[in-house]
Design brief:
10 helices; 5-stranded mixed sheet; alpha/beta
């Protein structure tokens, strides 16, 4: 994707080519993690055009493996390995699609982190998603609306600018607390909520209706087009155009005089 304009143009013309992804994990700063990379607890993928959402989560994987809740902690490796295997089985035939994410940049938090956990737990190479088809939505929004499109933390601020915090949303700190409490359902629910919000952001931006805090030219245009005055002007212009068309039709039908 060369630019934000190209991204929005392509996703408008070919929405079936885009997937939205996010994931949750154990906090990097949790004492339980020690020197190891954080465990991945859920990955959620949403097909943009259909809205179909697929979850790969700790609690559902444990249930699939017939592992009771009181044994989950002792069998984390087995559960996470199965979770990641299912995820990459899904990815394998979709690697050349476009994958929209939020700051999934590196091995601390990103596609590389997911790949690393897969290698550690399976000893195999994952069918990686190519860098060229990864699209950071946060960067796209900065490119289109300016770096001040929302105050930090931008994801939560953007939610509030466009209504309110999405139901089920957890901050990084809250996700860490949920992991310690082994509340994997809440972590998965938060990930689903975030992916749904990203889809909403894209669709609103495509329609020119996304509300941002920025003061750039595109923000001005979007707000102008949403204003009552603009709608009134558009309505008047349409009526004038119709009237002119009718007058031209009447003139054309009148008999000519020598």
């Amino acid at each position: 994707m060369a630019s934000a304009d190209k991204f929005f143009s392509d996703i408008k013309d070919h929405p079936d080519r885009f997937y939205i992804i996010h994931y949750s994990s154990q906090s990097l700063f949790d004492a339980e993690a020690g020197a190891l990379s954080p465990r991945i607890t859920s990955i959620v993928v949403r097909h943009y055009t259909s809205g179909q959402t697929v979850s790969f989560s700790t609690h559902t994987t444990a249930e699939y493996l017939h592992i009771p809740p009181d044994e989950v902690e002792g069998r984390y490796d087995e559960i996470e390995r199965e979770l990641l295997t299912h995820f990459y089985n899904f990815v394998r035939d979709r690697r050349e699609k476009y994958w929209v994410h939020w700051n999934m940049r590196n091995v601390t938090f990103g596609f590389e982190h997911i790949e690393h956990r897969y290698r550690v737990l399976t000893g195999q190479e994952p069918p990686s998603i190519p860098i060229e088809v990864r699209i950071n939505l946060n960067d796209v929004l900065k490119s289109r609306y300016g770096g001040d499109y929302a105050p930090d933390p931008k994801m939560l601020s953007l939610m509030e600018l466009n209504g309110s915090k999405v139901q089920g949303f957890l901050s990084g700190k809250e996700e860490s607390e949920a992991f310690k409490a082994k509340d994997f359902i809440r972590m998965n629910t938060s990930t689903i909520a975030k992916v749904g919000f990203f889809s909403f952001v894209i669709s609103q931006a495509v329609k020119g209706k996304l509300k941002t805090a920025g003061h750039g030219f595109l923000n001005f245009i979007d707000r102008l087009l949403e204003s009552r005055k603009a709608r009134l002007i558009a309505g008047i212009s349409a009526c004038v155009g119709l009237l002119v068309g009718l007058i031209q039709l009447v003139i054309w039908l009148l008999p000519t005089h020598s």
